[in-house]
Amino acid sequence: MRRPAAYTLVEVLLVLALLVLAAGLVAPAVLEGGARNELEDAAQKVANMWSRARLDAVTSGQVLIFRCQPGTGMASVAGIDSAVEAGASAGMGAAAVGDQAAVGGAPTQELNLTGITFLQIAVAEPPGSQHAVLDSSASSGACVVLFRPDGATSDAEAVLQHDSGDQIVVTLRGLTGATRVVDVSADQGGP
To answer: Record's SUPFAM superfamilies (predicted)?
Structure first.
């Protein structure tokens, strides 16, 4: 009499061992890929926020400010109140610029990145910028990028860092408003 066709216990254990081995090899790559995708998505959100802020400044005819606090994942874009602009051009109003009263109403854009922080941001201001706004923001530790109605903006470079330690750089070209996302590989040692 023939035995029914079936898998033996040894065959089942061998297949399970191979599955565990394959999962052990694939899991780190999948987890790392998830962190990298989150970081790239966040960088694209910042680039889109800058592009939209420049477009909004041109179409509305108002100066807009992108603000972020290094060490956090929060950023916003809002207009400058015309009274603050007048005070800034006269050399007054620098103390009021750092608080919410200096911003023309509620932010037009807000961004809160979970698990990702602005590690650092370097800004080079175009000629004719509101120095009272820049000085006040620098004293509070906030980073500011100005978007003017003529299309000019600050040259900026923001380094974003994921909780896993991965970094990515977002650049803004002041003359053209072009944004670019640059990958920072671990073997380069950072930006």
So the answer is: Pili subunits (SSF54523)
Identify the CATH homologous superfamily for domain 9-188: minor pseudopilin epsh domain (3.55.40.10)
> Does pTM top 0.85 for this prediction?
no
Strands in the chain per DSSP E: 64-68, 74-80, 103-112, 116-124, 143-147, 155-162, 167-172, 179-184
Backbone φ and ψ for 172, nearest 5 degrees, come out as -125, 125
Identify the residue with better confidence: 54 or 108: 54
Which residue's entry shows tokens 């400010």? 65
Q: Which tens digit of pLDDT belongs to each residue from 110-134?
A: 888 888 999 988 888 766 555 545 5
**Domain limits of the chain?**
9-188
Instruction: From residue 124, give the alpha-carbon distance in Å to each of 20, 146, 158.
Output: 52, 10, 12
